[in-house]
Records
---
Amino acid sequence: MSETKQQAQRQMMKGNVAIAEGAIHAGCRYYFGYPITPQNDIPEYLSAELPKCGGVFVQAESEVASINMVLGASAAGVRCMTSSSGPGISLMQEGISYLAGSELPAVIVYVSRIGPGLGGIAPTQGDYKQCVSGGGHGDYYSIVLAPSSVQEMFSLVGTCFDLADKYRNPAILLTDAILGQMKEPVVLGPRPEPKPENKPWALTGNEGRGKSNLVKSLYLGDGEMEVQNWKLVDKYEKLKAEDTLVEELWMDDAKFIIVSFGSCSRMVESAIKLAREQGLKVGLIRPISLYPFPEKVIYERTKDIHKVLVVEMNTGQMVKDVKVNTHKNADVFFYGRPGGGMPTPEDILEKIKEFY
């Protein structure tokens, strides 16, 4: 692409709007949701834009209704999504479990707000555990991706749709109030036409097919539910092997590792630049997929680099996954800011010096 053409496609865009436009680019034409801050730009934008491209926007009567509308639309074989925050996502957990149990693809956008309880609209990463541990009942996982820029807000929602379809599983785009409300340049192309769906399992009627399809999460036969659960395990193992996403920066000569994700990793990058100006060889591992977590990267890197600092905007949630996957000779330290607190690059630099 020429520089002139690329510049022509760059535009300033708010993070939440980038998600909504990214969903349209990804072929999503069905959205069901209920308003809650700080993600309301998403349904507002889609309510105006989806009808222009033949799509359907429904403001449901509740979050419970919206996730079940998503389930129904997904069962019919279309790309569909919802978005919410904090308490709204909590209300959706039963529906997300049903999506996973029924092996239905869907995208759930999670723009985090502080909690527990009603909390507020300040930024946080306190919902990591809820997302990567399933959140609802049963032995299941959602695919979870965490962008760190407005450009990734646009592109990773498409990746969520692709992975959801590939694995017939719900996918969560986990972001927060910082990225949702900030504006950055985003490179966009023209909206492509949606690709024809190839979902032979979908409930589209059995005319010309003979046998009817059946989508369900209820298995009452002796041992059937156990067989289904092991089937899901095999799928998650394939997901780990083929679609773990991670970014590594300044790792070639690193003597000290910081692990951070999402908006917090932006502050970490600034801190590492300050540290390197002072001769401290610090590298960054940024998990982009929180599930599947980059277990092998963490383990392999900590064979030789024995000090790891995990920086999160919570009381310590991802740090537990880092500790489980770190080589036995490495020490893991933690620095967190919960409930709307945000670490500055200078704060992080002080922690680097403390543990280096």
---
Amino acid sequence: MISNERSSFGNRRYGAQKPQVNEETIRSDKVQIERKTFLFTLKENPRGRFLRITEDVGGRRDSIIIPAPGLEDFKKLLDEMVKAANETPPPKSQDTQD
């Protein structure tokens, strides 16, 4: 085995193209928060619907995909995090402590 090949990828070679999957965009929107842009895209393919959240920071992109059946649980957890962020006071900085 060549050092840059991994057996977990089967017969695929490094840099090989993934097969193209037909995806339909249902809805897309974006939000700018500080220096980050988040793109939310609801899509559908033969396996089902999913939400792709892409973070773009200075041209570098990272994405997560949430299957549609998990969106309600994701929303509940996100709502709880927003609530906690608003209720919990930020820690005091070292400069202001006596």
